[in-house]
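Sequence only, no structure available. Ideas?
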Amino acid sequence: MSLNDIVCIQGLNADSNCYLIYDMLIDTGTGLNPDYIFNELKKYDLEIDDINLIVNTHCHFDHVGGNYHFPNAKVAIHEADSQALKDKHNKLTAIDMFPDVKIRHDVDIELKNKDKLGDFEVIHTPGHTPGGICLWDGECLISGDTVFANGGIGRMDIGGNLEGMTNSLRKLKELDVKYLLPGHGPWTDNGKKHIELSASQLL
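Reply:
I predicted one. Tokens follow.
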């Protein structure tokens, strides 16, 4: 599905959802289903080498595993998750759950809160991981695993914490979100209502 300038690619099996904005790919899934991702890109006349920037919403394997399929793209991730991605032995990526997953361990850009990526602003939303981020353009929120449709929030048992999640939900609740584009599951309009439902679990 295409929404404004965002191409929404539904996750396959354990893959995260991926979002394509021109030559920027938000998350890359586990890497276990590369043909699926490549075929989705081809629908928009894009090849592997056309992706110049990968933005990972956080460091878990199901969002970063596909990075290595795009060797020419730079990788951006929040500075608080950067070390986990760079360290082959760091448990925060949760790669031990899927031994067949390979991870590209280089990071080119360490993101900070309020950094700009095209029309999107980086919002640091810890809670699921220390360096979780959302991307916000004033209408669409790409929310990673911080918040999902229908009242879901990210699990906090793999590097997350309750205080961070509570503060992040409080921050997102203030946004007038029309379209919520989460890391897993359906994307939806009336995003503010879905975020408020999610926030009601903790606030």
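The first strand starts at residue 2 and ends at 3.
Hope that gets you unstuck.
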